[in-house]
Amino acid sequence: MEDVESGDGTGNYGNEIADDSNNNNPRVLDRDDSELDKHDDPFAPREGKTLTWTNIHMTLAGKGEESERKLLDNVWGEVPEKQTTAVMGPSGAGKTSLLNILAGRASSHGRVKIESDVRLNNYSVDPTNIKVRKLIAFVAQDDSLQVTSTPREAIRFSAKLRLPRATTDHQLDKLTDRMITELGLTACADSIVGGELIKGISGGERKRTSVGVELVVKPALVFLDEPTSGLDSFSAVQLCQVLKKVANAGSSVFFTIHQPSSEIFNSFDHLILMNKGRVMYTGSVHGVPDFFASRGHPNPPNYNPADFIMNVAQSVPVKQLNEDGFFPTDERKMGEAFVPDDGKDALGITVTRRTARGVDVYDTKPPGLVTQVKLLFTREINNLRRDVTALGARFGLTIFLGVLVGIIFLDVGKTDPTVAVNLQSHFGALIMVLLMSMFGTAQPALLSFPEERPVFLREYSTNHYSVISYFLSRLTMEAVVTGLQVFVQAIITYFMIGFQLSFGLFWAVTYSLAMASTALAVLLGCSVEDPKLAQEMLPILFVPQMLFAGFFVVPDLIPVWLRWARYLCTLTYAIRILLVEEFYDCDPGNPEANNACNDLVSNIDADPDETWWNWLVLVALFGVARIFALYILRQKSTKFF
Ligand SMILES: Nc1ncnc2c1ncn2[C@@H]1O[C@H](COP(=O)(O)OP(=O)(O)OP(=O)(O)O)[C@@H](O)[C@H]1O
C-alpha cells in the first residue's frame, strides 16, 4: 500500500523520495554527502517552473455614459525558470495588475473583468486557487511583518514552518544566517521590525526582511512587487544580486521595478515593458538596444537604457509606437495545456511517492498542526512581552477600574439586605464587575484580528500555517491573558466589595463571561476588515446585552416579540448564575433578609434549579461564536480582493 502526496507546499516538490515498494525501504535518490548540505543553503539547486500566459485582458466597465476601459489588453509573456524577469513601464501601465493576476491576487469583481490563460509548466492553472497561490512566494509592496519580531525571527519562523519538517534546528539557523548576511541585515538582525506605533528597523531593512522571509524557503516561483523601492542604490544592487542567485539556483523570479540604475537593469535576464496596458517589449534585456534601434529609437551613448526606454514609452504617442513596430503579437505556439499524467498532478507538479512505512530518511512534509500552534503561540508570547505598553495599559486599566469600583462599592456585599438601598448597591456592584469583565477583555480581542489581518493573510497564502493553527494559538493566548486579567480584577473587587459566594466561583463566572464575550468580539473582528470599523461596531456587541439582561428593565417589561433576544446574550446567563450564588437563600435564619434576596433573584428570572443549564448555555454560546468565527476566517483567508 502506498500513499501519494502532491508535494510539501514549499515549492520543493518531488525528487527527494522514491517509492521502494519491493523491499519496503524508502531510499533517497541521487543523494550524497554534498547534497545533504543543500538543506542549509538557501541557494541550493531546486526544480524550476516556467510560468506562461497569454490573452490576459482586464477591463473596467464604464459607468453611465463612460465607455469601457481596457486596463490590460491581450497581454502575453513568460517567466522562464532560472531567470530574473523584470516588469517595467510608466505609472498606470498595468504592471501591478499583471503581477496580481499572475499571483492570484486579483480576479473579476465589481466593474473589473479579468480573463486569462495562465500555465505552469504548460499545465493550465487558476492562480486564484489557493493551492496554486501557495506555490508562489510573494513579496508585496507593503511589508506585512509581525511588528514585534526581529528579522532573524521572521526569517527563521518562515523557514521552520515552510521547509520540510526534517530540517534540523542547526540547518534552520544556517539558512537564516546566510539569508541575513546576503541581504545585508546583519546589523539589525536582532532589532524588532517595528511599525506605526513601535519604533523598529528602517523601511529598507523591513523590505529586505520581507524578501528574506520568502527566499529562505527556496521557492520555485518568486513574485516581488517593487522590491527595490525605498532602498538605497547599494542595497538595491545587493538585493538584485540575491535575486539573481535565487534564479541561478533554478527559481523563476518575477518582479516589477521603477527606475532601475543601468547596473541593475543590466543584471536582469528578461524584460517585459508595459505601456498603456499592452506589452511594448518582451524578451532578453540584452536584446533591448537592438530592438529599440531597429525601430528608430537608438539608445544614446552613456544613457541609462532603463531611463531611455521609459522615456520612449512615455514621450512617443502609442499610435507612433505601433507604427514603429513595438507591441509585438504573441507568435508562440502554446498549443493545448497538458493534462495531469502519472508522475504529475493537476498543477504540473512532480508527485512525491511515500511508502506505507513512511519516510524515515528525509520527510518532505512541512511541520504539522502541533508545531504550527507552538510556534505561533511562542510568537504571541514574544509579542506580548515586547509590546509592554499595550500589556501595561490593559492590566493598568483593569487594576485602576477594579480599585475604583472597589472603593465605590466598599463592603456593600456585607451590608444588611433588608435595607433596600443596600441590596440595590450590592446588586449594582455585581453587575458592574460583570460589565467590566465583558468590556475590558472583548475590546482587545475585537481589535486584534483586524490589526493582524495583513500578516495573517500573507502568511496563510504563502503556506506558513493553516487557519485552524492560527485560530487555536490565538484562542490559547486569549484564554491565558483573559484568565490573568479577570483574576486580577476578581482579586481586587471580590475582597473590597465583600461578595458572599466563594472566590473560585466568582472568578469562574467572570472568566466564563469574559471568554464568551471575547468569542463574540473575535467573531465580529473576523467579519470586519478595518480595525476602525471594528472599533465603531463594538456597541453592537454590548448595548443589546445590557438592554436584554434584565437589570435595566425587568424581562416582563420587554415587548414580548423581543424577549427571545435575551436568550442569545451571554450576560443574561452570567447574571443568573451569579445572582443565585450570591443572593439565593442569603440568610435562612432571617426570613425578612432571605425574602428580599430571593425576590431579587426571581425578578431577574434566575432560577436556582437552572444554574447548570445557564452554565451550559454560556459555554455553548462561546463554542458557537468560536466556530462561526473560524468559519468566517476560513472564508476570508482566501480573499485578497
Ligand atoms: N480595481 C481597479 N479598479 C479600477 N481601476 C483599476 C483597478 N486596478 C487597476 N486599475 C487601473 O489600471 C491601471 C493600471 O494600474 P496598475 O496599478 O496595474 O499600474 P502600475 O503600472 O502598477 O502603476 P504604478 O507604477 O503607478 O504602480 C491604472 O490606470 C489603474 O488606475
UniProtKB/TrEMBL annotation:
SUPFAM superfamilies cross-referenced by the UniProt entry: P-loop containing nucleoside triphosphate hydrolases
Principal subcellular localization: membrane
Membrane topology: Multi-pass membrane protein
Biased composition (Basic and acidic residues): 28-48
Transmembrane segments: 388-409, 429-449, 479-499, 505-526, 538-558, 612-633
Transmembrane is among the record's keywords: yes
Domain ABC transporter: 51-301
The entry's keywords: ATP-binding, Membrane, Nucleotide-binding, Transmembrane, Transmembrane helix, Transport
PANTHER family per UniProt: ABC TRANSPORTER G FAMILY MEMBER 28 (PTHR48041), PROTEIN SCARLET (PTHR48041:SF139)
Protein name stated in the entry: ABC transporter domain-containing protein
Organism encoding this protein: Phaeodactylum tricornutum (strain CCAP 1055/1)
Taxonomic placement: Eukaryota, Sar, Stramenopiles, Ochrophyta, Bacillariophyta
